[in-house]
Amino acid sequence: MKPALIAVLLTLPLMACSSSPERTGEVTLRGNPMTLVGEPLNVGDAAPDFVAVKQDMTEASLSDYAGKTVVLSVVPSVDTKVCAIQTRAFNEKAAALGDNVVILTISMDLPMAQKRFCAAEGIDQVITLSDYRYWDFGKAYGQRIKENGLLARAIYVIGPDGVIKHKQIVPELTTEPDYEAALNVIGS
After folding, report:
1. Rounded CA gap, 188 and 173, in Å?
2. Each residue of 54-112: pLDDT tens digit?
3. Where are the beta strands (DSSP E) in the chain?
4. DSSP 99
5. In CATH terms, is domain 23-187 a member of 3.40.30.10?
6. 83 part of the active site
7. Which listed residue (36, 60, 71, 83) is catalytic?
8. Could you read off the pLDDT of 141-161 as tens digits, one per residue?
9. Alpha-carbon Rg of the chain, whole angstroms?
10. Could you give the 3-state DSSP secondary structure of residue 28?
């Protein structure tokens, strides 16, 4: 293959990313504005399906949990203080939510790092998913941070009908989300 053709093929994914809409003013990291890439979703929208990777390196998708209420707990990295707190908080609350509710923690962490974290922290009620391979979740939900490639902290509650019932993109990435607001939607 000619070098010029190789260069064009290698830039196609970058061109695809650069054509996505960019949003500023929604989130900051330690007070510094960050840029989210992709279309935002709203309450009332159909939740887009996505493919991510589980701890055992198999794929999972939102459609695997069809008919259940799904809490998407989105974190930049489980290896940071607030992300660990968020994951532990949902793990503690998960058992009381019943069999028709599943909590998925999604990050860009490698599945092996998520597995290590869950083992060390006793996380056994939350399913961790990694968006590292396809960036499918980040693209579909407009959650990828342009400056660092991580996902912005957020919570989505998706009803059994596949519709977004609650959404919170946390304005400052170093702060916790409003757990009760999400849990109240599940209980209603």
Report:
1. 28
2. 999 999 999 999 999 999 999 999 999 999 999 999 999 998 999 999 999 999 999 99
3. 22-29, 32-37, 51-53, 59-61, 69-74, 101-107, 127-130, 144-145, 154-158, 164-169
4. T
5. yes
6. yes
7. 83
8. 999 999 999 999 999 999 999
9. 17
10. strand
